Amino acid sequence: MGSSMRKRVGSGVLALVLAAGLAGCDSGVPPSALVFFTVDDIVIGTGGPALAGDLVTIRWVAWLWEEDPTDHKGQRVDSGEREFLLGVGETLRAFDQGLGNMRVGGLRRMQVPPEYALGGEGRGNIPPNSTLVIDVELLKVRPLVTDSAPFQIIDLKVGDGAAAANGFVLTVVYVGHLYDESQPDNKGRQFEVNNAGFSFSLGLGRVIRGWDEGLLDMRENGERRLIIPPELAYGEAGRPPRIPANATLLFDITLVSARVP
Predict the structure, then answer these.
(1) What's the whole-number mean pLDDT along residues 36-65?
(2) Among 49, 60, 84, 191, which residue has the least CB neighbours within 10 Å?
(3) Fold type of domain 152-259
(4) In this structure, which CATH number among 3.30.365.10, 3.60.140.10, 3.10.50.40, 3.60.110.10 belongs to the domain 7-142?
(5) Is the per-residue pLDDT at 253 higher than 70?
(6) What's the Cα-to-Cα distance from 76 to each of 9, 38, 96, 132, rounded to whole Å?
């Protein structure tokens, strides 16, 4: 059972802002529009901490912020449970910034202005530009890992143009996934996509070794899948928070052009 000690972040600032909001009601500015993002530890957990790049599972309940009710909880508008990768923009900004170093078993209360929530979009019972109160329980934290596989080069479509050679300037578009044998085509969590085109010189160490070796002799307009073990990618360092240490990667790459510099 977690400690019941309470930790307040930014409460003094919030009180000043709310006071200013009350004083400014005659100007038509609602107090909720002047609430800063704040976090309370209601229960401090006893498990491991949540860090950027971890997969976290949370359970939450959200209310519309109101000036008068206890804890500013107005109408209940949302609840749920989900897993996401912390710190990479897969979820609300409030969760990405407000769950850091929270321990499993803990309970946090957040007062969340629109720019940390849904902004002007709204969703379901949540109107656009809503300030929210969200209670979040941290259920689970686990590291992001991949399955292992040897280096593989798979031609999905053989191109009909010039062949890539060392020293050529290549322009490619691509999608990168973590390698996951449980997913269709072994495509796990997507960590990068480039549809605008990326150019580099082949064979000169400007990209990961798996690309330098895996794109050699590929032809323009071709499509190739590279499965790249960590020693040919980012190794023990990874590229946090999206690519963990010792990650096997899967890239689907289309060669747009291959030209002599």
Answers:
(1) 97
(2) 49
(3) Chitinase A; domain 3 (3.10.50)
(4) 3.10.50.40
(5) yes
(6) 23, 19, 22, 10
